[in-house]
Fold this protein.
Amino acid sequence: MPSRLLFLLSLTSLLLHFSACQKADTAATYDIVIYGATSAGIAAAVQAKRMDKSVILISPDARIGGLTTGGLGQTDIGNKVAIGGISREFYVSIKKYYDNPVHWKWQEQEEYKDGGQTRTESGEASMWTFEPSAALQVFEDMIRENEIELVLDQKLDRAGGVQKTNGQIRSISMLSGETYSGKMFIDATYEGDLMAAAGISYIVGREGNDQYRETLNGVHTKLRDTTMSGERSNNAINHNFVDGVDPYVVKGDPASGLLPFINPDGPGEEGRADDHLQAYCFRMCLTDHPDNRIPFEKPENYNELDYELLLRNYEAGEAGFPWINSQMPNRKTDTNNRTGFSTDFIGQNYNYPEATYEERERIREQHRNYQKGLMWTLAYHPRMPEHIREEVARWGTCKDEFARVDGWQEQLYVREARRMIGPYVMTQYHCEGLEVAEDPIGMGAYGMDSHHTQRYVTTEGFVKNEGNVEAHVKAPYPISYRVIVPKSEECTNLLVPVCLSATHIAYGSIRMEPVFMVLGQSAATAAGLAIDGGLDVQEVQYPELRTLLLEGKQVLEL
């Protein structure tokens, strides 16, 4: 090769190296870098500022708050006493928001009635039901008041955007080219994208019962009456089809093929592991106020065959209403799944955790179109019972909540995606109080809750759903610090408060928005301690962490 060409190639290589070094040197540097502006990410950012740490909150989306601002206004609590710290502050701020008469536009304040576990008792300082827009306002106020640096619409370069040296993340780069350096990193996404890109061990799907000696994990087609601690549980029977619903395109004719969204391979062996995920949906915010209502429309790609199982279920004797329509302020709702065929798009989310951003958007749109078609079918299809059509047709999406002209949100209810495999794993035993974590950073209190994961054909030739678990916990239980840190050999400056280290069934109890906020605060507290002591996150001394958590009004025991 001519010497001049060799010189030019060497010079080009040197310039590229210099450019890369210059970019790394000029990357914005912070004490704590938080990826994911979910409720957990926001709580972590607030706590970081309270510890006098420089912090940046990076949102891969245009809207902050995740599910809390995305339609999940009927807060899943389990026991309010278990919620403290910044999480409790959020719900106190919600109460103050609604104490202001200006925020009651579509309804008089005294007309609104909440109920169940979220009822605001007389004299209670907090409120647990809210509109998405109210939650968004409270979070925006928290960010502004704490002077938190926030960037929106910045997606992590999952292919090569995480730079690690000697087991520590040095910087993360976005698809835009923006790079952020830090001493500590927190992955607060529902998907665990930063965790995965950093090379941390994780699992997607359900463990088998035998892996951790559980009874509520893996495939569940049969009713199980009790948990290991003797509590009652309702599994296969709930949110299922009535008996006798035919699964074939032509009734009674297997040669005609299965109706859409039925697993042709069957459910699998009882209690065994698989890669299935509990179903996702959009937690719809609906209204019946005529001035704020967008009527349900039939989507352009509507396929009646997609809803044939719904129609057959009612024709076979289903008597239940196909949604849980919880009242929110201002004549709005948080609308969730109920019965055998409802808002959950069962079995259609398996690829979501590992999917590219473009593929995830297609999955979101498929879920949205499925629910649009579902709502039109419930409201207008002549084969639906008249009382259901009349009730559903009264409702529609809201004009004043989300940016889309059709009133639908962008945030999909990602109930479960990746789960880290850390140095400690929360299991069914912890949820039932049979094992107790000695280093709590918060408490879980909701029942062990999994939505269905698949539809299958029974040996009798009818359709059923599989995967539902509803098992109570006796009391709030401690969540270990070790479930939000990776194994030390994998990374020493990352904390993961959302996609934490837990089995499928234990995660089903922990995965609630108030708890995510609690864990986000605890993660930032630990990050601050690690910075001050020059420690790896695995080396943080629990007594010191506990002291700071209690000072931050976290609830660690009852």
